[in-house]
Amino acid sequence: MDLLNNTSSVSEFILLGLSSSQEIQILFFAIFFLIYVAIIVGNLLIVISVIFDNHLHSPMYFFLANLSFFDLCLSSAATPKVISDFLRKRKTISWWGCMTQMFFMHFFGGGEMSLLIVMAIDRYAAICRPLHYKTIMSHKVLTGLLLLSWAVGLMHTTSQMVFTVGLPFCGPNVMDSFFCDLPLVIKLACTETYTLQLLVAMNSGLLSLGCFLLLLMSYILMLVTIRQHSFSASSKALSTLSAHITVVTLFFGPAIFIYAFPFNSYSVDKFFSIFYSIITPFLNPIIYTLRNQEMKAAMKRLSRQHMVSWLTH
């Protein structure tokens, strides 16, 4: 701890936020608050439905529940602080708070990235190897793939934060952002950070781009396989697959633009940051519930059970 204090004199960072207008900030507060409540409710409904409804005890919904959990945690890593800052004139975050925020955002972001690949593997086995699906996606395999997702998230964030925590911050502490953005924090260090910036770009941007291309190729292969099935089977598989493709595009698209293509316009970066950290966790439960008859039926059964239980008591 003494070593840390000797190398860094900055105890907090100042965030410029999304706007300096008090009226606009109040509007943002209302919008972000409502969206965050919807994120909590929507993703919790999916998790609870999968846990308590026996009809959803399958590998696909097992991974879907974990995706909702990742979305919930990813949004909660920064959104509550962002919402409260809309009511503050001076937006600050402590040094440790900033480091913690970045750690968990990249942890859950990296975990969700790998989980989407795991979900693609599950859909590939279901569509391309239907006769061997239950054998391939056994309970042991499900547990192993989920643990792998957590491990990838941990390695992803640790490989970046281990270098960032040791950087000396002795002067500038103002960021044109509404949360602690790793590339912007690194630029504030009182030392040469070109190598570290390159590491972050490769770790986050190129990894996102590589995973997205890998997922794209796997979905193309599955779409080709679907064309060989009967109409009814193809229709159901295509509906499920289209939901996965939409979620993958929404998640990887902003991440690729933020880290792989460095914009000079901070407004563009802020737009994609909002989309990545808030809008995507909000849209994911909507995409999976509105397009999934089994999920909607499970939620109706769950609501009826709670209604009956409430009336009987």
How would you characterize the overall build of this protein?
With 313 residues, the chain is mainly alpha-helical. The protein has 12 helices and 3 strands. The protein has helices spanning 2-7, 22-52, 59-76, 79-85, 95-128, 133-136, 139-164, 182-187, 194-226, 231-260, 266-290, 293-312; strands at residues 12-15, 92-94, 174-175. Helix 2 (22-52) packs antiparallel against helix 3, helix 2 runs antiparallel to helix 4 (79-85) and helix 2 runs parallel beside helix 11. The relative contact order is 0.14. The model is unreliable at 1-7 (pLDDT under 50).
What is the H-and-E element order? HEHHHEHHHEHHHHH
- The best one-word shape is globular
Structural class of the helices, strands and pairings?
Answer: mainly alpha
Low-confidence stretches: 1-7
What's the helical proportion of residues? over 70%
User: Termini distance?
Assistant: 55 Å
Number of continuous helical runs = 12
Which characteristics define this entry?
12 helices; mainly alpha; three-stranded mixed β-sheet; disordered N terminus; 313 residues; globular
Can you give me a brief rundown of this structure?
77% of the residues lie in helices and 3% in strands. It contains 12 helices and 3 strands.
How is the secondary structure organized here?
Blueprint: H1 2-7, E1 12-15, H2 22-52, H3 59-76, H4 79-85, E2 92-94, H5 95-128, H6 133-136, H7 139-164, E3 174-175, H8 182-187, H9 194-226, H10 231-260, H11 266-290, H12 293-312
Parallel strand pairs: 1-3
Antiparallel strand pairs: 1-2
Helix pairs in contact: 2-3, 2-4, 2-11, 2-12, 3-5, 3-11, 5-7, 5-9, 5-10, 7-9, 9-10, 10-11
